[in-house]
Amino acid sequence: MGVCCPVIRTRDLRRSSLFLKLALVALHLVFIGFLLVCDAQFVEKTRLHPWYVIDAMRDVDETNAILYRYAPTTSFKNCLRCQKMVLDLYPPGTSLRNLTCGYCHVEQPPPAKHCHDCDRFVLQFDHHCVWLGTCVGQKNHSKFFLFCFHDLRWYICEESALCIWTLIMYIDYLTNVAKPWWKNAVIILLLVLLVISLIFVLLLLLFHRSNLILTNQSTYELVRRKRIPYRRNMPERVHPFSRGIKRNLYNVCCGNDTLDSLPTAYELEDKSRSYTCLDMLKCRCC
């Protein structure tokens, strides 16, 4: 019995160590699932429809019905008003004024795209969120960013605390397990690198979304710039729909129900002009 006890004790320690590792991994997964799945407020707020082009035209139709006192129909006059509304978003004399959606054959406003996943023509299309099951567009873009910022902030803080607690428990437990010291050091180093990488990726995602908000860009414009007709001939650092940092932030916080129009050639030339010291003092970017 005296010979078998150390073998049994070592086997029990290894089994307990395996159970501890599995329990810690499960704890992380449960925490992530609780944060992303059980946050009903986040899901409800961001599942609001992103404002489709057809709905925007219907709003114009109903507004005209109130102003001119006729029933909101899809008559020829109303179609002409919607076409004129879209044409006014493009600079006069450009071929872009004749753009129509190739799927629903509707006049295409500048920051709009037809989503192939939900088969809708979305205003200020950003991306299609598979997890939410809807597009992120003009009406829910601000809510998507604000709730992402709120959840990412708490996720980084709580996940960091959980990883530190896991690291302390792991170091304390490994002192009782007969294993070479360099193996323990490698495991601890990998855990630390994992925590740093996780926080870096989340912060990178947050800064990326913040940059899009401050410059009034969408993910689609950033990624598919060469495929968008009105973006092909523009310099890369020119953001056509930016109204300045203050105005962009105001639109995010308070909502924006207006359609963005493309700038004229003079406005594009002014936007592409390099910043000088005087421009910085005058807060030209704001």
From TrEMBL:
Species the sequence originates in: Brassica carinata (Ethiopian mustard)
Presence of the UniProt keyword Metal-binding in the record: no
PANTHER family tied to this protein: PALMITOYLTRANSFERASE ZDHHC12 (PTHR22883:SF301), ZINC FINGER DHHC DOMAIN CONTAINING PROTEIN (PTHR22883)
GO biological process annotation, one example: protein targeting to membrane
Key words, A-Z: Acyltransferase, Lipoprotein, Membrane, Palmitate, Transferase, Transmembrane, Transmembrane helix
Membrane topology: Multi-pass membrane protein
UniProt cross-references to PROSITE patterns, sorted A to Z: DHHC
Class of this enzyme: transferase
Main location: membrane
Superkingdom per UniProt: Eukaryota
Listed EC numbers: 2.3.1.225
Catalysed transformations (reactions): L-cysteinyl-[protein] + hexadecanoyl-CoA = S-hexadecanoyl-L-cysteinyl-[protein] + CoA
Domain spans labelled Palmitoyltransferase DHHC: 99-224
Family of this protein: Belongs to the DHHC palmitoyltransferase family.
Record text about domains: The DHHC domain is required for palmitoyltransferase activity.
Subcellular location: Endomembrane system
GO MF terms, alphabetically ordered: protein-cysteine S-palmitoyltransferase activity
A single Gene Ontology CC term: endoplasmic reticulum
UniProt-recorded name of the protein: S-acyltransferase
TM regions (residue ranges): 18-38, 185-207
UniProt cross-references to InterPro entries, sorted A to Z: Palmitoyltrfase_DHHC, PFA4/ZDH16/20/ERF2-like
